[in-house]
Amino acid sequence: MKQSEWEIKWNDSLSVGVVEIDEEHQKFVGRVNDLNQAIVECRDKAEVERLLDLMLMEATHHFWHEQQLLVKWKYPHRAAHAAKHAQLTAQFDRVMKEFERADVSFTWALKGLHIKQLLVDHLLHEDMKYRDFLRKQEHSSPVSGKQSARKRVQASVRCVRGDERSNNKHT
User: 53 CB contacts (<8 Å, ≥6 apart)?
Assistant: First the structure.
């Protein structure tokens, strides 16, 4: 795909510093680019709806995963972050219903772009708050504590994921 003004390029400024979450975010950026491309190319409504459904299904799973990690990390604003996820999910449902009723391609293209923008804004603003929290946790530890703070984050990711083999390797 040729670079266009619609395409989002992943870079370190989008990273939250947790490999597994960054991978989910990178996958999401790819889905956003797929949706943008479909809209730019004026693909049919069924294709745009398929891409939206896929993006929203993955976002729902990501929200659940992220919330599990925020609990493990004892992120102080986890309830507010979960509430933002609930608000986004309700907005998605409302916009998807409007999208399904829309007959004019311009209208459903705008609905698709609106959902995409809600998710991108969440990544750029809300997720960066817990990134900053995790960085402060790491920097407030002594040098040897940085390593253990990083290991605690990695261990909590494995625990939420249920990866006992990886957990046992590092003990």
Answer: 96
